[in-house]
Amino acid sequence: MSKKTIIHIHTGDYAAAVASRILPGKCLVWTDLLFNGPLPDAMPLDIVWITSRANVLAPFLGGEVIAKSLVTKLYSKLFSAVAEADEINLWFDSCMYDQMLLCELLTVLPDLMRTDIPVYLICEEKLPDDSFFSGYGQLEPVQIAAFLPRRIRLKPGDFASARDYWRIFRSPAPQAWLELANSKASIFQFVPAAAQRLLEQLPCSFTGLSRLEREIIEALLDGNSQLVPIFKAVSALKNAHILAIRSSGRQLTG
Fold it and tell me: Whole-structure pTM over 0.70, yes or no?
């Protein structure tokens, strides 16, 4: 009898590396800056999609040629693994970055895997002791393993919902994002907040800056001049924003 092939899909190299120390199976990474559009009406690995995403990522990856090669390899590697999998576990954080990736992946998965393959979602922001965390990458291996019993097996209707959300995220009209931000999204509980956060990436009518750009400038004004300190300062602003909303009892919108 052949050995069961289990894959775990993460959204960051560090989270995947930590998880690989304790989870059975193979840990893979699925990543793309999807909030930096455009997001064409094409399937991943389609030349239109690859070219579009390579153009977006070129400044971060050393040019268009390198970006196109890396994007192609990323999609090809993951899709090949999915085609051979007997079980798929999706580890996604609650942030906009992860939620957009999740909806994209769930849109293409049905065309890549066998119909009898179970797909499980692990998407939370609280540890079993009810304390909050920002992402799986900050956890210890034993903490990550504790989430496996809490995973949710996705149903056909869940894939259909994710496909609808992905279409909205790809919409060029922010009105669709606003409608999603004001909705309730069943087991995809963090999707509405992701849509709200995407709206906040639009330029402010007063400053012309997105929320992220404003937070980076604030970090610079506080004296941070290196990449890592800036990243930590912006993350701290995000966490402070989330905790303020939770403590007030208001709905989380970013």
Answer: yes
